[in-house]
Amino acid sequence: MTPPSAAQRLPVSWWAAVVGLCAILVAPLSIVDMPPLLDYPNHLARAFILASLPRDLALGQFYTAHWSVIPNLALDLLAPPLIHILPVHVVGRLLIAAALLLPATGALAYNTALGGRWWSLGVGLPAFNVCLLYGFLNFEIGLGIALLLAAFWLRWRERHPVRTIVLAMAGAPVLFICHLMGLVFFGLLIGGAEAFQIARERSSRALLRRIGVLVAIFAGPAVLYAGSALRHLGGDAAFLPLGAKLLQLPGAFTNYDRRLDMAAALAAIGLPALCLLAGKGRVPGRAAVPAALLLAVFLAAPFAWKGTQALDTRFAIMLAFMLFAGFVPVGWPPALRIGAAGVLILLFAARMALLTTAWMAHRTDLADLRAVLSPVQPGQAVYVAEAGLREAPDYWARNPNWRILSNGVRTDEHLGALVPIEHRAYWPFEFDNMSQQPIETRQPYRTLAERIGGLPDRGSAAVANVCGFDYVLLTGADAVPKLPAARFKLLAQSGFAALYAVTHCKEDP
């Protein structure tokens, strides 16, 4: 079926609505220079380090670049050149904006290619999804590029096959470099669309031709994967029980309030389901087959594999976007249109208001951290510990929303990344897995990091071997006793954070 012309489907009011949605989504980025996205400070620190090497002698004694074929490089390639011309926190927020807007605009483009329009504006609901709040920016950028490329595929594959195939062949390696899961998503989207066309044509010639096209598109990424360190990893697959896995589907809408999250998930899943049952909506075959493939892969995928966590969660995020990208309402009466729009707008406004409030409050923690870190000089080393959940259960039970998501995941664990970003000093938790990041920690600092392992709590820090460190930064310091004066000298405390000088390091026997 030939889609209606762009002029028929995309009036000025549509573009105004899209611009308004995008503006609302990025508005919270003006509130705080380091938003509380779990892994984001760590990724930003690595980008800053890569931008500073090799000329920065302070950071150069801790880290060296280690470039190789890695399917997870969007931020590492984009951010360092930008940091040379813009402040680091401006660059970081620009990349967060890309991670927000690319999936949203990709879903809008995909839906319009199917003949839809207004329903897809509800994509604002999953925009601040759980993976975005975990700081998985490379994944989100890859997700958005995959949707945009798939939208071009749906629109032009049959009318302009050569240029569409060339675009896909160029885009597939880009997706591989951005994030491997973006490439997988793209493969499912266009592979499903091609499978639908093969079923329609029922021709062995069409089968061979279309399979050949897919092989040509993904041959380049296959060669890249064969040359990557990731190919050799494995044996660590971990699966969730079926019940926990299914909870990942509504869990894709996780934000800061569980009741509001469940309401958003219910609206996003329930409205299309009810309309399909009532004959008031459809999922065109070119989207239905990819959605079915996504669901099957989600059910089969492990939670963790090849050193990566939350794999099946990422497929749940893809399905959440497909709820708005792949569904097309049909014959909605005015009452249903107004009611559905009202529900989506109300939920979106409530979620954005809550997120904005949380991010405004997060500025207090950043101010506390910056205040206590002022003594740290370039080239020094900072041990970081936190007030643990078991050490201060009452504190975390009443903890402000900006530090804990509605699923119980804390978002403050990588704020110590301010140490290398703003003081050019060492902290021991920089992501430096060489199959996933293009950076290597030099000795003896790599040994220091391995000795610490995961982020310690206050009790562990009090008795730890901190030889090699100049300071201990304690977060959640207002919830636990001070570190023992026999080994640590309190230099500064400001609410959430405290900085101690190491006076006796207690070497291991």
Quick overview:
By secondary structure, the chain is α+β, with helices and mostly antiparallel strands. It is built from 22 helices and 8 strands.
Keywords:
22 helices, globular, 8 strands, alpha+beta, 2 domains, single chain, 509 residues, 4-stranded mixed beta sheet, two-stranded antiparallel ribbon
Give a written overview of the molecule.
The protein has 509 residues and is an alpha+beta fold. It folds into 2 domains: 6-30 and 68-332, no CATH class; 362-502, no CATH class. Helix content is 56%, strand content 6%. The chain has 22 helices and 8 strands. The chain has a 4-stranded mixed beta sheet with strand order 4-6-8-7. The protein has a two-stranded antiparallel sheet with strand order 1-5. A hairpin with a 2-residue loop joins β7 (488-494) and β8 (497-502). The longest helix is centred in the last third of the chain and has 39 residues, at 334-372. The chain is globular and about 80 Å long. The relative contact order is 0.13.
